[in-house]
Amino acid sequence: MIINWQCKYFTELSTSELYQVIKLRLEVFAVEQNCVYQDCDNRDQDSWHLMGWQDGRLIAYARLLPPGLAYDTPSIGRVVTSPLVRGNGIGKELMQTAISKIKELYGQTEITISAQVYLKTFYSYFNFHTIGDSYIEDEIEHIKMKTSQQRSGR
To answer: Is the pTM of this model over 0.85?
Structure first.
């Protein structure tokens, strides 16, 4: 499966790209996970947006936040793949690409995420380790996870 990866700063997104990003995020986080939450959190405007396209359709996405916006370190958030392509390794490719892009943008640094607890094992594959206890965010159990400079990605 060939994916066309693009990473754009918010102001570089076309209205069509932004629409596809919001559509995919809402399809999964609001509809599929049956979670009412405020997706537009005023962090998109200061972030990079990693998009995976196939045949003109957005199938994978992650938001790359600079240090100081959500955490002291850079952060990866809103990690999502289309239900139509799950089980094909797209999620792993998305995370590998996101980690590489964070390193390109911010250098060898720790990366922090707020992960849904059920995905803890998935993120541990990329050398994220848990920090503290789990907590409820938008009615879903989450855990803070972080890499270290020596352990950031495989």
So the answer is: yes
